[in-house]
């Protein structure tokens, strides 16, 4: 799957999308995610405390590369996610709901929408790749539904 979306969004940059905003989003989201009853246990199990800051730095680099075109991310996230055997659609829905909540709270509208669109595309790609890896029948799998965040 090729992402045809331009890397930078002039509207989001005009609203103030920059490295600092991305860092705020990543740090707030992952602080909340670690405490979340649905996705928190996955994060706490697979990202030990002593690796947490490095994880935040890597995710910040990912979003900076994705939204600002910085080229600072050089990771391979899929193999790590494939190894998380308990990962399922409930986790993806919750991740997206919390992420939407975070960016809507912290970002101007166009920037929040850019984050949301990318995050939904990423979640779908991950869940399809994970399903293929597990040998699941993906022929009639519907897209994720949006879950409200409490």
Automatic annotation (TrEMBL):
CDD domains: TrHb3_P. It comes from the Bacteria. Pfam families: Bac_globin. Keywords: Heme, Iron, Metal-binding, Transport. The keyword Ribonucleoprotein does not apply. InterPro entries: Globin-like_sf (IPR009050), Globin/Proto (IPR012292), Hemoglobin_trunc (IPR001486). Gene3D superfamilies: Globins. This is Group III truncated hemoglobin. It comes from Paracoccus spongiarum.
């Amino acid at each position: 799957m090729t992402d045809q979306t331009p890397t930078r969004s002039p509207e989001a940059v005009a609203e103030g999308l920059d490295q600092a905003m991305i860092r705020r989003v990543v740090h707030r989201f992952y602080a909340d995610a670690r405490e979340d009853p649905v996705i928190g246990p996955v994060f706490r199990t697979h990202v030990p405390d002593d690796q947490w800051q490095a994880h935040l730095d890597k995710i910040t680099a990912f979003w900076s590369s994705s939204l600002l075109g910085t080229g600072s991310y050089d990771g391979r996230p899929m193999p790590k996610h494939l190894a998380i055997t308990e990962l399922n659609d409930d986790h993806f829905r919750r991740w997206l709901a919390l992420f939407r909540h975070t960016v809507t709270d912290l970002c101007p509208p166009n920037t929040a929408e850019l984050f949301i669109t990318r995050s939904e595309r990423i979640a779908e790609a991950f869940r399809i790749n994970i399903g293929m890896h597990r040998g699941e029948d993906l022929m009639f799998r519907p897209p994720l539904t949006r879950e409200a965040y409490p």
